[in-house]
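In the current project phase, our protein records have gained a structure token line. A sample record follows, to show the layout:
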Amino acid sequence: MERKVATVTRTVPPVLAKRYGANGWWTHLAIGDLLARGLAKAPQTRFVVHSALRPWSGTFADIELTARRLAAGLRELRAEIAARRAGE
């Protein structure tokens, strides 16, 4: 059974769209592309998570690699779930 995902479209008044674009606040990049570009600008920048449960230290390059591995794992999981559903 295929599930439908609701799509919400928000209309932004043209005056705001123009202002956001002029100020560089709004681009046509997807959030993943925006994050990847930002991380790639300074890959050796140190990043630290201060946590009593899961402290972590690494670089922006480490973050990007971890995010890409997570995305690949989620894609594989989605494919496995779809294959199981197809066999039902």
